[in-house]
Amino acid sequence: MGEKHYYYKVKLDTHRGRCISELIEKGKKAAQAAEELMTELGASGYTDSPRALYPGVGIGSLVFKGVPNLWQFESIGKSEFIPNRKTDAGKEVAKRIAALPEVSSDDFRLAFGIPVNQFKTPAWFIYNEKVYVCSSYSLGTEYTQIVESEFMSKKKKVK
Predict the structure, then answer these.
(1) SS3 of 51, please?
(2) Residues 6+ away with beta carbon under 8 Å from 77
(3) Mean of the pLDDT values across residues 98-125?
(4) Is residue 117 a contact partner of residue 65, using CB atoms and an 8 Å limit?
(5) pTM of the predicted model, to two decimals?
(6) Which of 24, 29, 78, 134 could form a disulfide with 123 if both were Cys (CB 3.0 to 4.6 A apart)?
(7) E-state strands within 12-60
């Protein structure tokens, strides 16, 4: 038997919407900081940190157009690199990556009003000044419940 899903929308000019907007701003700043560090390091791409909940936040591995300084980086295969922690130069890069701002699961739960003991993160996106959320548990009266077809039609327009 399939898992039940709840579909919601929330306007960004409500209290919950403002909380979500703050999360989005925090995510944008964190993603921008990661992008600036990538540019400075000469990386053309990167993969997100596995614990990141906002696109572009965190750096899991680095991708370079050419071969990077192997004193600073070591290969993990598939043309991806991580800081070489055996050298001082690599340790310095690792410290800079670790110092990047993050968007944690606690930030996400606080913004969406989700109890801390819930393990599944809802799927969400923004369309026309509204946040659309699909959750495996009921989120409460702060959200306007909608039907699945409304959620899916907006999701298709976003993609």
Answers:
(1) coil
(2) none
(3) 81
(4) no
(5) 0.76
(6) 134
(7) 43-47
